[in-house]
Amino acid sequence: MVGRARLDLFATRSLWARVIGDWSTFDDFRGGEALVAWERAPGRAVYVGGGVADEAVELHWQLMAKATWVIAI
Predict the structure, then answer these.
(1) CB neighbours (10 Å) of residue 15?
(2) CA proximity to 29, closest of 62, 1, 64, 69
(3) What is the pTM (predicted TM-score) of this model?
(4) How far is C-alpha 66 from the geometric centre of its chain's CA atoms?
(5) Which structural domain range is residue 10 located in?
């Protein structure tokens, strides 16, 4: 059995969060990810997130951050 659950939470139109959970009985995998985003306008955003994966052999962690800002000249 393989499954995925996703939950999007909106505090405002520009501030939101996403939580994702994955699991698989084929390779004994369980994992989760979280992302918080602030999007001021198209091209102007900050994203911070991370995740964890529990595979049969070892535990894996990840952290992600991204900022974009378009400067008009």
Answers:
(1) 14
(2) 1
(3) 0.76
(4) 12
(5) 2-69
Per DSSP, what are the bridge partners of residue 3? 23
Tell me how long the chain is: 73
Q: How far apart (Å, rounded) are the C-alpha atoms in residues 73 and 71? A: 6
DSSP output for 1-64: -EEEEEEEEESSSSEEEEEEEEEETTTTEEEEEEEEEEEEETTEEEEEEEEEEE-SS-EEEEEE
Q: Domain count of the chain?
A: 1
Backbone angles phi, psi at 13, to 5 degrees: -65, -25
pLDDT digits (tens, 9 = 90+) for 11-44: 999 999 999 999 999 888 899 999 999 998 877 8
For residue 16, list its beta bridge partners.
Answer: 10, 37
Q: Within 10 A of 36 (CB to CB), how many other CB atoms are there? A: 16
